[in-house]
């Protein structure tokens, strides 16, 4: 993604799909919600837009750490983005608002 405010402020479908597949994320988004999630959960890396930035970040990715990040990505998906969690939290919010 080109680092833009609209991408930085939301989780794209791609991010959620990759997490659901247990894949760690590489993104050019260095600030905002997706970048914060990657850092806080150790489920991927951000890099500077362009071939040099991508080459640099890939040179620091080790297989073992990347597999661990993928496993954590699947856990984050289950806890935060799976329909059971999302709809349960949404129902709780609606009940709170109704009272």
Briefly summarize what is shown.
The chain has 99 residues and is mainly alpha-helical.
Keywords:
single chain, mainly alpha, two-stranded parallel ribbon
What average pLDDT do the residues reach? 90
State the share of residues found in helices, binned by percent.
55-70%
Shape: globular
Largest sheet: spatial strand order: 1-2
Number of strands: 2
Number of helices: 6
N-C termini distance: 41 Å
Report the structural category: mainly alpha
Strand content: 5-15%
Largest sheet: 2 strands, parallel
Order of helices and strands: HHEHEHHH
Radius of gyration: 15 Å
Low-pLDDT sequence parts:
none
SSE topology sketch:
Layout: H1 5-8, H2 13-20, E1 25-27, H3 33-41, E2 44-46, H4 51-58, H5 63-81, H6 83-98
Parallel strand pairs: 1-2
Helix pairs in contact: 2-5, 5-6
